[in-house]
């Protein structure tokens, strides 16, 4: 496949470039200045020049706390920009895979979320991503798959794993929130899943392959559990480690409210697309090995 991806430096696009090459696909990563999500006119030009078989929309405004004070910019990128990418894909006559987030939910359920559960973002970032989902489905819903992911980490960019390893370099104990739960998911596994979904969309016009899907790693954890897993994996590689002191969300206030429950039920994507990402623990070991 010839794949056009929006974004150049994010965790998912970097993982896609690596995984696609290994699978024999060609990836054209498009970012500023040639493609700017805040400049819809640039989007069509860049995607048309790429002549893709499929478009993968990964670029986004992802500064969750900063978004609280930059609502217009977050919506320009995550909502209007996503809609413009979908419109371009429709005009090119190619399928679209759009990456979204668990933040479209309020986190109040006592079980993993399924795709049909009511949405209710608690912050600007989540609201902008939900608006992006709706824009994508309005523009190109008959040939798009929206993939909600969560708790992304990788050997690339900034993420929780890299932060914990850095802090462990000079601290014996680190306080980590223990009352938020989710599915830690490697961007490398996400890339594999995206490539499978993209290939399915290119190969078949089956409407069941389109729509909204949840795609996260197997297993769940709190942030404190995740940190303990990171340090155990690092220690096994001779890398930095620290004790984890569990704390509550109230003890670590942030401008944006995080969902207490970010767990996503991935039964639908496994049944329809044959995508089942591995358990987070094994994937974490592989990522930490690359970082230590």
Main sheet characteristics: 6 strands, parallel
Distance between the termini: 34 Å
CATH class (first level) name: Alpha Beta
What percentage of the residues does DSSP assign to strands (E)? 15-25%
User: What is the helix fraction of residues, given as a range?
Assistant: 40-55%
The secondary structure category is alpha/beta
Tally the helices: what do you get?
Answer: 9
Judging by the overall fold, what is the CATH architecture?
Answer: 3-Layer(aba) Sandwich
Radius of gyration: 18 Å
Mean pLDDT across all amino acids: 96
Helices and strands, in N-to-C order?
EHEHEHEHEEHEEEHEEHEHH
Overall, the morphology is globular
Biggest sheet strand order reads 2-1-3-4-5-10
Write up what this structure looks like.
This protein has a single domain, classed as Rossmann fold, CATH 3.40.50. 41% of the residues lie in helices and 16% in strands. The chain contains 9 helices and 12 strands. The strands form 4 sheets. The protein has a 6-stranded parallel β-sheet with strand order 2-1-3-4-5-10, sandwiched between helices. The chain has a two-stranded parallel ribbon with strand order 6-9. Helix 1 packs across helix 6, helix 3 runs parallel beside helix 4 and helix 7 packs across helix 9. It is globular and about 55 Å long.
Itemize the secondary structure elements and their pairings.
Layout: E1 2-6, H1 11-22, E2 26-30, H2 40-50, E3 54-57, H3 71-92, E4 96-101, H4 124-140, E5 144-149, E6 152-153, H5 160-168, E7 173-177, E8 181-182, E9 185-186, H6 187-203, E10 211-214, E11 221-222, H7 223-236, E12 243-247, H8 267-273, H9 280-291
Parallel strand pairs: 1-2, 1-3, 3-4, 4-5, 5-10, 6-9, 7-12
Antiparallel strand pairs: 8-11
